[in-house]
Design goal:
Elements lengths: L7 H4 L6 E5 L6 H10 L3 E6 L2 H15 L4 E4 L5 H15 L4 E4 L8 H4 L8 H28 L4 E6 L17 E2 L2 E2 L4 H20 L5 E8 L8 H8 L14 H8 L10 E4 L7
Parallel strand pairs: 1-2, 1-4, 2-3, 4-5, 5-8, 8-9
Antiparallel strand pairs: 6-7
The protein binds nicotinamide-adenine-dinucleotide.
Length: 277
């Protein structure tokens, strides 16, 4: 008798799955939401900036004729987190996928890029409240629902290469983003390292409930940095360039899908090889 072989293309499908993407109105979030929707999931793009989440929904509808949903979400407000999760479950009956993806650059870009020596602790706390506390609240609220479902669920959390390696401080000389001198602030590294820790913790905590928790770690994505930065950064990357936003999506779809059914607690690094040398 021949052994049966699983239909692996079906394993990559997200048909009949319900997903929430936080930061769904952001530069990467719109690609993440579109990618999940194109693979069959019903997607809620949730964001502090509702107009941007609505723009994501409109772009997906226009390009692919797929209906998706936008919701206002403030990760620093536990009631708002509860409301988005409850509304999603009420409307669609379940939640299979959480992409915990939102992050904050605080209310002041200038202060966000300040030096270690002068860094404003209000800004530090503002960032941590979103990147760490908010991510925990969102995972906890959604995880409770996933634990009550026979099929469990998949949580994917976005970190950054600067959560797993230090920035090369030499690449910031003359580097700008939207006309502002940039660097990678310590609070960003610290908050993203926490994401990796939270993923590992929750992956063992909820494993018995069939809830998988993984991290995706993007490298630098080309999105309006000046030429100096693009060149200095690209020079350090084995593949020799920054990433395009859409290149982050495949890893998310994979980890969200049943093709990754035996993967939990891991970190999929999408950095053109930067962290390899
Ligand atoms: N773009 C890159 O080069 C890059 C590299 C590595 C990691 N990342 C990570 O990828 C993720 C997406 O990044 P991006 O480039 O799309 O950033 P982005 O700033 O464009 O998007 C982040 C989104 O989070 C939302 N947000 C901020 N505070 C919030 C809150 N309190 N409640 C709900 N939503 C809130 C913002 O409104 C925004 O739409 C982030 O976690 C980021 O740290 C990005």
């Amino acid at each position: 008798m021949t052994q049966s072989i699983r239909d692996m293309s079906a394993c990559f499908s997200l048909k009949d799955k319900v997903a929430i993407v936080t930061g769904g109105g952001g530069i990467l979030g719109r690609h993440f939401a579109a990618g999940l929707a194109q693979h069959g999931a019903t997607v809620v793009a949730a964001d502090l900036n509702l107009a941007n989440a609505e723009a994501t929904v409109a772009a997906i509808e226009e390009s692919f004729q797929i209906k998706t949903y936008a919701m206002a979400l403030d990760l620093t407000n536990e009631d708002s987190v509860k409301e988005v999760v409850a509304k999603t479950r009420e409307k669609f009956g379940k939640i299979d996928i959480l992409h915990n993806n939102a992050a904050s650059k605080s209310s002041s870009l200038v202060k966000f890029f300040d030096t270690v020596e002068e860094f404003d602790m209000e800004i530090w706390q503002e960032v941590m409240r979103v990147n760490v506390d908010g991510m925990f609240l969102m995972a906890r609220q959604t995880g409770k629902i996933m634990c009550s479902q026979t099929a469990g669920g998949s949580i994917i959390q976005t970190a950054s290469i600067y959560g797993i390696m230090a920035p090369d401080q030499r690449i910031y000389q003359g580097s700008e983003y939207m006309g502002i001198p940039i660097n990678t602030p310590a609070v960003y590294s610290v908050s993203k390292a926490a994401v990796v820790g939270l993923t590992k913790y929750l992956s063992t905590y909820w494993a018995k409930n069939k809830v998988r928790v993984n991290t995706i770690t993007p490298g630098g994505v080309s999105s309006g940095q000046n030429g100096v930065f693009q060149d200095l950064y690209s020079n350090r990357v084995p593949l020799g360039r920054m990433a395009e936003a859409h290149e982050m999506v495949g890893a998310l779809v994979f980890l969200a899908s049943d093709a990754a059914s035996y993967i939990t607690g891991q970190n999929l690094v999408i950095d053109g090889g930067l962290s390899v040398w």
